[in-house]
Amino acid sequence: RSSWLLLAPLLTPPVPVIAAPPCSLCPEGAHRFQWIRNLVPEFGISSSHVKVLSSPAEFYELLKVQIKTAKQRVVMASLYLGTGLLEQELVDCLEETLEKSLQAEGPSNLRVSILLDYTRGSRGKKNSRTMLIPLLQRFPEQVRVSLFHTPNLRGLLRLLIPERFNETIGLQHIKVYLFDDDVILSGANLSDLYFTNRQDRYVLLQDSPEIADFFTELVDAIGDVSLQLQRDNTVQMMEGMVHPYQGDKMAYCEIANRRVMEVISSARARQELLHAETFHSSQQGNSSLSQRGSEACGGLKPEPDTWIYPLIQMKPFGIQIDEMVTETLLTEAERDTRIYLTTGYFNLTQAYMDLILGTRAEYRILLASPEVNGFFGAKGVAGAIPAAYVYIERQFYSEVCYLHQQERVQLQEYSRAGWTFHAKGLWLYLAGSDLPCLTLIGSPNFGYRSVHRDLEAQVAIVTENKALQQQLHREQEQLYLCSGVVSSSTFEQPNRYVKLWVKLVTPLIKNFF
């Protein structure tokens, strides 16, 4: 995130009211979360295709291996690509793989599509754009670089707001990395910190062509309404497309909504047809239809025991699926259900706070201590950002204590010397279970920005498989082991002192981070 404290009081954001859909649990279905498929496509897979990673180094090495072995497609969506040596090594891997594809017999089928945020990717003289231009120049027919520009940054506002501060208005925040039919979902960006000592979450979905197709189409849809990077470092829109900040805002958002919803709707239709064919063939004792569906996806598959639901949130385009699903999960969580929720930037929306404080489930909320906040020790105004988060955390903790909810709602702070903390998501444990059956993983932070300003995507992973549940449980335990429980004495420590001006400014600008 960026420095925003000087800018934010100038702006007055809208505060739309969202009503969550009714929860239609399916007690006789394969699992109780099948209601999610009323909103998004449901992808049934084998749990053996899911691998949970634990470290930045593992994530980085996997990216390089996957790039080097890709044959058909590389699709990467991130906030930005860094400019250091590790990032250059990734670009070199892409160049090497593209070069091999040209040397192979016959026409090359490999396509590389990269989606980044325009403002973050254009910051500084050496930036994401300059890192990628050599690929565009060398492989113009195979490489596409799209730079999303929020339609809310336009006119006088765009002229007046300086670099870094302009990122507060809205960003492309989705992080998905896919290679042929393998998909990595994460909250990590393509930057050296995320490859070394910034803790995040990472899940690999192997041999999952339908999921890879969905995210390829999603990135293509956003790319189509984004600025296209040219070989001379200029940008231009695709022919006939409305410009995000020069064209009509309403027309642009309507086109973007239509493109993204077409991806979601068509994937839902495909999956529903596949479900219907499978059910029909099983009822008739005839496997021909299901076999044809399986062959189309690369061969016969085992019966699914794990279900993937992509949850998209793009409030600038009027798309709020992730918000509705998250609110419904929190609303419907029963007594003795345990929810472990983590975010690197603790700034929950009012709706999420009300649900956590007003429902019956137990919550263990993991957040960053000031020392592992990404802005800790920053110069200038940015150096006050960790203090603003401390102030927000203390206000929430005070509300928990006022309602006598300390046993049910517990805050824990991640602390690890030499590291920063960026993990986000949740794990849901049903009453009486020692293992989670659902996790959310992706880019949202559960804050105002994630819900209202940025483009976000995560997946709900629901599984009945004990081995995968144990993987997810170990992931949760590993993160929470590096934490301490927050109490009243936490805020009496010298490093928790918040200056008066930060207390006064924070309520005015909290909707910008």
UniProtKB/TrEMBL annotation:
Gene3D superfamilies: Endonuclease Chain A (3.30.870.10). The keyword ATP-binding applies. Belongs to the CDP-alcohol phosphatidyltransferase class-II family. Its EC number is 2.7.8.5. Residues 279-293 have a biased composition (Polar residues). It is an enzyme of class 2 (transferase). Residues 168-194 form the PLD phosphodiesterase domain. The keyword Signal applies. It catalyses: a CDP-1,2-diacyl-sn-glycerol + sn-glycerol 3-phosphate = a 1,2-diacyl-sn-glycero-3-phospho-(1'-sn-glycero-3'-phosphate) + CMP + H(+). One of its GO terms (biological process) is cardiolipin biosynthetic process. Residues 1-19 form the signal peptide. GO terms for cellular component: mitochondrion. Functions in the biosynthesis of the anionic phospholipids phosphatidylglycerol and cardiolipin. Keywords: ATP-binding, Lipid biosynthesis, Lipid metabolism, Mitochondrion, Nucleotide-binding, Phospholipid biosynthesis, Phospholipid metabolism, Repeat, Signal, Transferase. Pathway: Phospholipid metabolism; phosphatidylglycerol biosynthesis; phosphatidylglycerol from CDP-diacylglycerol: step 1/2. GO terms for molecular function: ATP binding; CDP-diacylglycerol-glycerol-3-phosphate 3-phosphatidyltransferase activity. This is CDP-diacylglycerol--glycerol-3-phosphate 3-phosphatidyltransferase. InterPro entries: PGS1, PLipase_D/transphosphatidylase.
